[in-house]
Amino acid sequence: MARWHLVIDVERCEDCNNCFLACKDEHVDNEWPGYAASQPRHGQRWIDILRKERGRYPLVDAVYLPVPCMHCDDAPCVAAGGGAVRKREDGIVLIDPVRTQGMSELPASCPYGAIFWNEEAGLPQKCTLCAHLLDQGWRDTRCTQACPTGALRLVEASDMQMQATAAGQGLEALNPEYATRPRVLYKNLSRWDSHLVCGSVSLERDGLVECAAGATVELYAGDPVAAESATGGSASAPLSTAITDAFGDFRIDGLVLEPGGYSFSIALEGYAPVSYEVDIAGSCNVGTIRLQEVSL
Ligand code: SF4
Ligand code: SF4
User: Fold this and answer.
1) Which residue, among 200, 218, 222, has the nearest Cα to 210 in the 3D structure?
2) Cα(45) to centroid of ligand 2, in Å?
3) CA pair distance 100, 123, nearest whole angstrom
4) Could you give the C-alpha distances from 286 to 138, 201, 289, in angstroms and in order?
5) What is the dihedral of CA 176, 180, 184, 185, to 10 degrees?
6) How far is the CA of 50 from the centre of ligand 2 (A)?
7) Which of 46, 105, 113, 222 is least crowded, fewest Cβ atoms below 10 Å from its Cβ?
8) Which SS3 state, helix, strand or coil, does residue 206 take?
9) Cα torsion at 102, 103, 105, 108 (round to 10°)?
10) pTM
11) Residue nearest to atom 2 of ligand 2 (CA)
C-alpha cells in the first residue's frame, strides 16, 4: 500500500522558517482531537531548522537542516508508549494526546529529540505530519505547502516505489546509526555531514600581489612526497582536486576528514609549485598561499 514520506532537500533550505511558522499557525491554539493537543506558542519546534557554518570568514558556507519527527517504522517512542503511541498503516506515528497524559519520560525515548514536553498540559507532543489534514484529503502538510523553495516534499508511495526513488535520487536517512527506519529522507545530506576545506592562492608578478586564478590545488592525506620516498613507490592519489576561481579562491567540498596531517600541492604554469603540510580537524579555511614566479 502507499504510505506517506517526507523528502527534504538540504541544498534548497534557506532557513526562512516558513515551515515552522505554518506549523505554529496550524497547531497553536488549535485542538485536533485524536491527533494532537494544542501546541504551545513557545518552546516547541515540531520542525526545527538546525544550522551549521563551514569554513571561516571570508570563505564560509551556511547549511540548514530541517528536522521534524522522522515517523520511524521501528520507532523507539512507539515501543516506549505502551500502546499510547501508534504507527498508522499509512506510515504516520501519532502520540495519543489523552492516553499519554503524564508520560514525561516519552521525550527521552526519541533519539532525534523530536518529542517535546508540554509542562502546562502535562503531555508529550510532536509533529503529526498534519494527519488531520491528510485524512481529509489534503496532499500537502502545512509545512510542505508553505516552503517557497521546494525543500520539503510530501510523497505518497509504496515501500518499493520509495526504495527506487531513494536509490535514484540519492536519498538518505539522517543518523542511520539510530536504526529506526525513518520515513523522512534527505537529499544532498552530504552538505550537512561532510567537510569543506577552502583557501586562497595569490601570486607575485612585477612586484605586485594578484589573485592566482586557474591554479590547480590538490589535497592529500599525509605527506605524499614523504610517503613516496619512504616506500619507493608511486605517488599517492589526491583526496580531491580544485581549480582556483577568478579571485584565487578554492573550495573542496564533500570531504570526510579524520583529525590529522594533510598536505596541499599547488601548481600554476609559470610559477614554482608549492607543497605544504597542514593539520585539519574539520571544515576550515586554510588561508592564503603565495606562489612565486619562476625566474628564467
Ligand atoms: S523521530 Fe522520534 S518521535 Fe518521531 S517516530 Fe521516530 S522515535 Fe518517534
Ligand atoms: S520553509 Fe523550506 S526553505 Fe524555509 S526553512 Fe522551511 S524547509 Fe527551509
Assistant:
1) 200
2) 13
3) 6
4) 50, 10, 9
5) 30
6) 11
7) 105
8) coil
9) -120
10) 0.88
11) 147
Asked if 116 and 126 count as a contact pair (C-beta separation under 8 A), the reply is: yes
The residue whose CB lies within 8 Å of the most ligand 2 atoms, and thus the one to mutate among 49, 145, 192, is: 49
Residue 227 banded pLDDT, cuts 50, 70, 90: low
- Which pLDDT belongs to residue 226? 60
23 Cβ below 6 A of ligand 2? no
Cell of 102: 503524564
The residue nearest atom 3 of ligand 2, judged by CA position, is 13
Contact partners, residue 248, CB within 8 Å, separation at least 6: 200, 201, 202, 203, 210, 211, 212, 213, 215, 288
Q: Are 283 and 55 within 8 A, CB to CB? A: yes
What b/e string do you get for 229-266 counting C-beta neighbours within 10 Å, with b at 16 or more? eeeeeeeeebeeebebeeebbbbbbebebeeeebbbbb
Region of residue 181 (left: phi > 0; alpha: psi -120 to 50; beta: else): left
Residue identifier of the C-alpha nearest atom 6 of ligand 1: 72
d(CA 237, CA 229): 15
Strand, helix or coil at 128?
A: coil
Angle, CA of 262, 267 and 269, to the nearest 5°? 180
**Is the pLDDT confidence value at 96 over 80?**
yes
Q: Which ligand is nearest to the CA of 11?
A: 2
The lowest-confidence range among 121-125, 160-164, 187-191, 224-228 is 224-228
Q: Could you give all domains of the chain from N- to C-terminal order, each with its CATH number? A: 3-192 (3.30.70.20), 195-291 (2.60.40.10)
Q: What share of the chain is helix, strand, coil (3-state, %, to 5)?
A: 20, 40, 45
225 pLDDT more than 70: no
Ligand nearest to the CA of 17: 2
